[in-house]
## 1
Amino acid sequence: MASVEANGIRIEYESHGDPARPAIVLIMGLGMQLVAWPDELVEGLVARGFRVVRFDNRDAGLSTQFDEHPAGPIAAAFMRWSLGWPVSAPYLLDDMANDTIGLLDALGIARAHVVGASMGGMIAQLLAIRHPARVASLTSMMSSTSARRLPQPKYDAFFALIKRPARDAGLDDLVDHFVHLFHVIGSPAYVTPLPLLQERLRRGLARAYRPFGTLRQLLAILASGDRSLLLPQITAPTLVIHGDADPLVPVAHGEDTAAKIPGAMLKVIRGMGHDLPPQLLPELTELIAAHCAAADAVAPAQAGARSPPAN
């Protein structure tokens, strides 16, 4: 692993594959770290001829934390959001999109295929809106337009998401807590085997645990608002992937995203929830790789191009 200073913060990242190959940047979701992108997915994309960059968002993992900013009462923020009132947050999703641009600049990547999961999909959408010249293609997974009229999470999924373990919880207790969360929000048709799920979670939790950072990221989602009027501006080839059994971000969110992005392709996976189960990694890898390759075929000279050296 390595880190760079970009957009005024420290960003922890990993780069896999040949730097001369077209780049795919993976943006993870709420509270999740770069290691939440399964190694099998990363390795599969590298094997298909891509350079793959995954990183910790601000307030997650080993990137800069914003602990000087209290998260504030989340319930009150949700109430304000539901009424269409402004929500206060230490930063917005646009700031997180600019973090990604800063990372690409630091790595000398002029254009990249952008793949985002959940909150990461929201950030990826903003990248395609605000920085179209930098985005070779967009893949938005299990994400949303953030339109308030869309179906809300199932109660048990939302409650499991916002419930926090005890402040003095040890590593084993934290693993048990997040095992329960993923059992609630995960794919009912593709259940991740318990030992593998525990191994994945233990790896991340031993690396870092930033519960207040997760709350600040949640505030950023609420404060950033609906992107519905902005999404028609996206010109990058777009693939929307969503599970029809997602209890946290119902499939209507993916359908709405695809409907509002010109020319977007929608892939609904039956039995998939709000996770990346091992049984679906071959299909997800192929979907992403084929989408990125098709975009490269349209603009081969631009995809994967590197930034010119500074004068």
## 2
Amino acid sequence: MAKLTTKQIISLAREIVAQNAGGIHYSDLVNQIKNSNPDTPTNTIHGSVWDLHREFPQEIGKPSRGLFVPVTTNKDDIGESKEEVVQKDNRVFKESEFYEPFGKATFFL
């Protein structure tokens, strides 16, 4: 097989991320590209995919270090807002209620 160009690597990486709804770790992404194209230098792959979330913010997100996830645009997939209601023991809580006690806490060093 021939070596992949940077544009081909990026295109393949975008496809792989889109196929993994739960996200894919950076090292797994690099390994998948390397395994399917062994003639392509590993450093070229690293240089092409490290900033996918910056190059394609509408398609790829990076919620934590080393994890690429496809960005959903379907409102059903996104869920409720940050003020999500949580029920436990027949009581209803809003997320904002949990932050108030921490704002009033005093810490001593």
